[in-house]
Design goal:
By secondary structure, the chain is mainly β. The chain is about 0% helix and about 50% strand. The strands form 2 sheets. The chain has a 6-stranded antiparallel β-sheet with strand order 1-2-3-10-5-8, with no helix packed on it.
Length: about 120
């Protein structure tokens, strides 16, 4: 068993969100990665494609998921299952920030349209 405590050295801040690394191979998880996401009101991540399914559980606020051109808003207490291989974008609701826990297979890779190749998410390794 591995007990993992969030810490500043396992937190990644981007212009769009703050990701707190939780379970990942670097801390003993062999199959899954999980992380906490905090987004300010109106923040939006980049359009991207993941090669693995992700499950987003919204803890507070609401998140809008744009996947394959369809927008679905998920409030606190709900979850979104995002399939692999789909162009997606995640946005915080315009009137409030949001927090979520994300779970994904540990070997997931992200690609950004217009950029060559793919890479691992730093907060999921």
């Amino acid at each position: 068993m591995h007990a993992i405590t969030p810490s500043p050295d396992r937190t990644t801040t981007t212009p769009n969100a703050v990701m707190t690394h939780l379970a990942a191979p670097s801390v003993g998880s062999a199959e899954l990665s999980t992380w906490r996401v905090r987004m300010e009101a109106g923040a939006a991540g980049p359009e991207h494609v993941m090669d693995r399914e992700q499950v987003w559980t919204v803890l507070s606020g609401a998140l809008s998921f744009i996947a394959d051109g369809t927008t679905t808003t998920v409030p606190a207490g709900g979850a979104a299952v995002l399939p692999p291989g789909v162009l997606r974008q995640v946005r915080a609701a315009d009137d409030a920030g949001a927090e979520a826990i994300v779970a994904m297979r540990a070997d997931g890779q992200v690609s950004i349209p217009g950029q060559p190749g793919s890479r691992a998410l730093p907060w999921a390794v």
